[in-house]
Amino acid sequence: MKYARTIDAEQPPLDYPAYGSTQLRHPAKALLVISHPVSETTQPVDAEGWYAIRTRRPGPDRTGQAPHLAMSVLVEGLLDRVVTRVNFADEETANATDPVLAAAGDRAATLVAKPRGGRLSLRHPVAGRR
Fold first, then answer.
1. Strands 68-73, 112-116: parallel, antiparallel or unpaired by DSSP?
2. For the chain, what are the domain ranges?
3. What is the mean pLDDT of residues 2-26?
4. Highest averaged pLDDT of the listed ranges 9-23, 57-71, 84-98
5. Cβ of 112: how many Cβ atoms within 10 Å?
6. pLDDT range class, residue 129, cuts 50, 70, 90
7. Strand partners, 68
8. Is residue 107 over pLDDT 80?
9. For a surface tag, which of 47, 75, 90, 120 has the fewest beta carbons within 10 Å of its beta carbon?
10. What's the CA gap between 49 and 78, in Å, rounded?
11. How far out from the chain centre does Cα 69 lie?
12. What are the backbone dihedrals phi and psi of residue 50, each rounded to the nearest 5 degrees, phi first?
């Protein structure tokens, strides 16, 4: 299932006479259509619902945190996004002194991506509707 852009015919026009304030605030010029980046069009890669993203690996930051990716996960059925992070298993030294992983205690391992099928992967069980 790919991300689908809204079809214009399904939406009211931007200048909708029945809604008077649109005459004052609708765009004067046509909207620009910007193609979606890869991060907005990723989809499940297997029957278990694993998602894949491709990105550049970050380096260490100035706050003493190990290299990691910050992620927001939106799931149908949850009222708000889930904010999480992904650390890398092969950064043992940096992970050992990372203040966020230290604060996570016993749950720190759930934030570290491990090798799976030749790639690093992270499993975040999030309850939502399929």
1. unpaired
2. 44-121
3. 71
4. 84-98
5. 22
6. very low
7. 87
8. yes
9. 47
10. 17
11. 10
12. -65, 135
